[in-house]
């Protein structure tokens, strides 16, 4: 954190936060409610706005040999979806999230809010070239599974306990033919009711938690 802007009302409501920032050497600047509204993207700002360093890290060294679960978002455009998947990946104990191609900036305000703090909990990388990201996952010993609604293989027939990088595509178009050809196996979530599909964040939750629970299931 580089600087903290805070209204009088917010400073009175959260004195411990202001004190912690000051003790850490962060500049604390008082602002008016009108200024807080201008700085914030929300309709009802809380009165506290921080200027922070970017959180993403280089791909090199992001994944170690012990990585077991990674989420790759390729061309995911909606910040709410991206933030929710980051939150799900964090809850499922994933080792990292990688955003590739034309994916939304994870520092987007809506994405940050949708992550509900998870943006700060797990390693995050942005890589323009999807092939480079997939190669890094494979080099880390991860199997590449692509979530694809028209895949022949159903999720229930996959060895979900194996170290895996789940690859999720654009909300409207899914995974590109190039990415589908690059993954080890396209996988679909079966639909038992009348719904035509699941949205991205829901599908990611099902896939990531299937892997997470399988990896933690007691042997025998």
TrEMBL record:
Question: Which domain of life does the UniProt lineage start with?
Answer: Bacteria
Q: What keywords does the record list, in alphabetical order?
A: Methyltransferase, Transferase
Cellular component, GO annotation: cytoplasm
- One Pfam family, short name: SpoU_sub_bind
The record's Gene3D superfamilies line, in alphabetical order, gives:
3.30.1330.30, 3.40.1280.10
Q: What are the residue boundaries of the tRNA/rRNA methyltransferase SpoU type domain, all occurrences included?
A: 69-209
Coiled-coil stretches noted in the UniProt entry, renumbered to this chain: none
Q: Name one GO biological process term.
A: RNA processing
MF terms from GO for this chain are: RNA binding; RNA methyltransferase activity
- Show the CDD domains listed in the entry: SpoU-like_rRNA-MTase
Task: Give the matching SUPFAM superfamilies.
Answer: alpha/beta knot, L30e-like
Q: Has keyword Methyltransferase?
A: yes
Span of domain RNA 2-O ribose methyltransferase substrate binding? 2-54
Cited PANTHER family:
RRNA METHYLTRANSFERASE 3, RRNA METHYLTRANSFERASE 3, MITOCHONDRIAL
State the similarity comment: Belongs to the class IV-like SAM-binding methyltransferase superfamily. RNA methyltransferase TrmH family.
* Name of the protein this chain belongs to: TrmH family RNA methyltransferase
Q: What is the scientific name of the source organism?
A: Amycolatopsis thermoflava
